[in-house]
Amino acid sequence: MDIFKESDVIGVLKRGLKQDGWSVKEQVKLPGGFADLAVDKDGVSFILEAKGEDKGGFSAAEMNFQMGLGQLMARMTDPNKKYGIAFPATPDFIKALQKFEHSFAFKALDVYLFVANGDKTYFVVPPADIPAYIQNNRI
Q1: Average per-residue pLDDT for the chain
Q2: What is the rounded distance in angstroms from the CA atom of residue 35 to the CA atom of residue 48?
Q3: Can you give the pTM of this predicted structure?
Q4: Tens digits of per-residue pLDDT, 116-136?
Q5: How many other CB atoms are found less than 10 A from the CB of residue 64?
Q6: Residue 133: helix, strand or coil by DSSP?
Q7: Core-most of 23, 73, 125, 131, by most CB within 10 Å?
Q8: Where would I find the H helices in 34-126?
Q9: Do the beta carbons of residue 113 and residue 124 sit within 8 Å?
Q10: 92: which residues sit within 8 A by CB, 6+ positions away?
């Protein structure tokens, strides 16, 4: 795939999360807007905001990532749910994430990273592990 678009990220997550036993709903209406995905498994619920690439390169990836964080914060209306931002594991998004290398915001807000890979797999980075993830994925 030439550009790892938001719809590609959502597709990777939908398939992978369903395979892992999660129930997955798209475009869920919340008080703060629509969440891209809401997933549930074994009493754990996540609200996810997904972002992807467009033809704008690093600047667009950085803007999309920051916009996604803002959208996710607006949807943080239920303290019993967990929240995450989903994005592709591309050089532009990894570079955008590096701006948060010294930030404690992910841990303070308890925001998880859902990272979609080009091989159509995904992985989750818990808030406490995000600094190490950033450090180990320098661009």
Answers
A1: 95
A2: 6
A3: 0.95
A4: 999 999 999 999 999 999 999
A5: 21
A6: helix
A7: 125
A8: 57-74, 91-97, 105-109
A9: yes
A10: 53, 57, 58, 60, 61, 62
Q: Where are the domains of the chain?
A: 6-136
Q: What is the pLDDT of residue 1?
A: 60
| Residues 56, 105: Cα–Cα separation, whole Å | 26
Alpha-carbon span 45 to 28, nearest angstrom:
13
Let me know: does 126 contact 112? Beta carbons within 8 Å.
Answer: yes
Residue 16, both tokens: 């992978």
10 CB-near residues (< 8 Å, 6+ apart):
26, 36, 37, 50, 86
Q: Own/partner pairs for 72-80, CB < 8 Å, 24+ apart?
A: 72/47, 72/111, 73/109, 74/32, 74/33, 75/30, 75/31, 75/32, 75/33, 75/35, 75/47, 75/49, 76/32, 76/47, 76/109, 77/30, 77/31, 77/32, 78/47, 80/45
Domain boundaries 6-136, corresponding CATH code: 3.40.1350.10
Answer whether 92's CB lies under 8 Å from 61's CB.
Answer: yes
